[in-house]
Amino acid sequence: MKFRQLVLLGTIIGLFGSVLPGCSVRPPQNDTDDKIKLPAQELTIAMYAEPPALDSSTATASPAITILNAIGEGLYRLNKDGKPEPGLAKELPHISADGLVYTIPLREGLMWADGSPLKAGDFEFAYKRTLDPATKAKLAPMLVWIKGGSELMKAKPEELEAKKAALGVKAKDDKTLEITLEKPVAFFTDQLSMPIFFPQKPDFVKAQGDKYGSEAGAVLGAGPFKLEQWDHHQLMLVKNDKYWDAKNVKLGKVSVRIVKDAGEGLKLYGEDQIGLAELKGEQIAAYKGRQDVAVKREFVTAYILINQNPLYAPFLQNAKIRRALAASIDTKQLADGLMGGVSVPAAGLVPLGIADGAGQEFRKTAGETMSGFDPDKAKQLLAEGLAEIGLTELPKFKLSADDTEIAKKTVEFILAQWKTNLGIEVEGDPMPYAQRAQKMQDAKDFQALIALWGADYNDPMTFLDPWLTDNKSFNYITYRSKPFDDLVKAADKEADTARRARLLVDAEKRLMEDMPLIPLYFRARPFAKKTNVEGLVLPAIAKEWELKWTYIK
After folding, report:
1. Which of 42, 114, 218, 299 has a C-alpha 20 to 30 A away from that of 34?
2. In this structure, which CATH number among 3.40.50.11440, 3.20.20.150, 3.40.190.10, 3.40.50.1980 belongs to the domain 49-258?
3. pTM of the model
């Protein structure tokens, strides 16, 4: 399932703010002071969207996931290589021979940021709250691998307590958590690092009521940092001295400023006012080969969603017309030009680097599952599709997207491609991120829309199961295909990893044949990063950044 954040067509800019610009070292105070003072371990980061709420049960957007990961922690935390290592857990799980029962001992002396003890029951409470239908957690499907999870998620009010009691999550004692799955899940340990699996303090959550997660005083974590201030223009994080590994957390303060415009980012970077700036367009070539460039290689696919609800664009119900739209876009030109040659043209839906679950990379197993740029074929498909629905020309429709600079340029590029290669007119429809997310996620009110999809675990299923007919949470395009459903559900039940991988390849091929969405590119984002910033991780999955190991040298 997804963490399913809809990733912004945008960026993060890090600012290293203190009294002096940049990150500097103070000179000796006098002749006898022959030791250089250490720099202040303070970091300011600018974010382009404010977290809507910091509730680990309901968070879906990247900003919320990123902040929750800084102030909280799960049983495991992904390291710089994307591998799970013990977090609040004392060690990796003890897994039964049949792969169903995970017994996980907690570390000794764990505390919440308020100094109160953290117990195994806090995980049990959190998982049951997430699956409770009243919580309306969009990521609750990520927990249905737990025995009884699906039943609890669908429980009627009169069934709720019985379904909670039957859920396969038990605190055996204050220091031992036992999780029982419906079936073996090879990547479940990785998933336990996600905020949706973080613990919650029952008394605190209940006391906050509807305010939980909405302001600094209504947020409580057990991670490297704690939320000291949140005025909805800025979040202030400070080191959590109650964190079990506090001695290895170097940053003392992190300020996250909510900004919209990143246009002056590189200018400020050049003036040593910021320490991290995303490079775009021509900036990428200008910085090529420099030592202060870091690339964030992500498990993220940019695509065009095509609404399959006939109320919005009935002519886009035709598969040949959708395939014509796809074949008329030169995604290599998009990736090389607009994206600066760092991102890679999509060869299917599942991005580079995702494992196939059988020891190989999925893209190497699947190969290219979508046709490439072919204007002549696109014209032919359009003509055939129009004939099938009794039209002589394609009606005008809207292509919606965020109103960020990169999103608007992407819309302009695609509209130009469609006009040049198909002779059709399409209207661009940029809008603020929050409005775009609401129209897509809640109202499903769009004709075609550009978005990004990021993995929450390293497996193709995170990109494929959102499009199941019965996935009410994330099938924003109302796609319905029994052959696709059968392949994904068969893979979900398949114990043989090689056969499972082949089923997932076939599912992607079927999706690309129907083309209810058009993959554009697999995203990578280059950043200019000051060379005195060490330990900053730019993860491939879910989070924008990881600060636990960051320090200023």
Report:
1. 42
2. 3.40.190.10
3. 0.79
